[in-house]
Amino acid sequence: MAIITFMSDFGWRDPYVASIKAKILSVNHTMQIVDITHEIEHFNIPHAAYVMRNIFRDFPKGSVHLVCVNTPASGKEKLVAIKLEEHYFVGIDNGFFSLLSDKQPSTIIELRKDDKYSAIFPERSTLATTAVALASGGSIYNMGIELKALASMMLPQVKVTKSQIWGRVVHVDNYGNLITNITREMFDRVHEGRPYSVLFSREQVEVISTSYNSVESGECVAVFNSSGNLEVAICHGNAAELLGLQYDSQVQIKFSESTVF
């Protein structure tokens, strides 16, 4: 039996998370449910996609990922189940799924809305039960009609030249660290052993460090995080607050023309 992971923007104050878990367990009390987070910024699809994109491959193939973020309550929303990189995802077709991977889903199913469907709380009435069915070995093809495409969204793009890389902040974590869309692979491709500066706000650093503690407390530091993305932080401080940067703020790497031997 597969694992069900659960991510939402519900928070912990209200009973919504518990209600969905109760529904899952009432259908099959042996289900293993793993909370990814319920502290996604309200309605923030890019935030949710960043979190899921960086964690879903750590779970076993065949896992089912229940995503409840920015769910409208109109009754007109398209509920979907998809198969992507041998994982299943269940949620609303609101652009989220287009941000998870460079690969395309192998299967996209629009879920049926039966007589138990609730336009007020579709996460509980339809999405939760679909997640259970998939985790129990049910065929995704029996859950609705197949679609050819999903709603799409675009993330900020990186601009790369021979001497500069311009990127954007794509996520601010709980510590105020600024995670960008500049990757180690992009940096290595352009670097060629040349001196460089990482520029952000009115600050700059001359080296990308190997740890957050490579500098003194209160100083700016740039690192490549465990996902390979360039991250700007302040040692023992909140970079977002102290630098005045946020989602979509620009970060630049500028390379010298000459190589140092």
Query: How many domains, in number, for the residues?
Result: 2
What profile does the largest beta sheet have?
Answer: 8 strands, antiparallel
Topology-level CATH name of the largest domain:
Rossmann fold
Report the span from N to C terminus.
57 Å
The top-level CATH class of the largest domain is Alpha Beta
Radius of gyration in whole Å, from Cα?
Answer: 21 Å
What oligomeric state best describes the polypeptide chains here? single chain
Strand content: 25-35%
Question: Describe it for me?
Answer:
InterPro entries: SAM_HAT_C, SAM_HAT_N, SAM_OH_AdoTrfase, SAM_OH_AdoTrfase_C_sf, SAM_OH_AdoTrfase_N_sf. This is S-adenosyl-l-methionine hydroxide adenosyltransferase. Residues 4-144 form the S-adenosyl-l-methionine hydroxide adenosyltransferase N-terminal domain. Pfam families: SAM_HAT_C (PF20257), SAM_HAT_N (PF01887). Residues 167-252 form the S-adenosyl-l-methionine hydroxide adenosyltransferase C-terminal domain. With 261 residues, this protein is α+β, with helices and mostly antiparallel strands. The chain has two domains: 4-146, Rossmann fold; 159-255, Bacterial fluorinating enzyme like (Elongation Factor Tu (Ef-tu), domain 3), CATH 2.40.30.90. Helix content is 18%, strand content 30%. The protein contains five helices and 15 strands. The strands form two sheets. Strands 8, 9, 10, 11, 12, 13, 14 and 15 form an eight-stranded antiparallel β-sheet that branches. A seven-stranded mixed β-sheet has the order 2-1-3-5-4-6-7, sandwiched between helices. Helix 1 (16-27) crosses helix 3. The longest helix is centred in the middle third of the chain and has 14 residues, at 122-135. The protein is elongated and about 65 Å long.
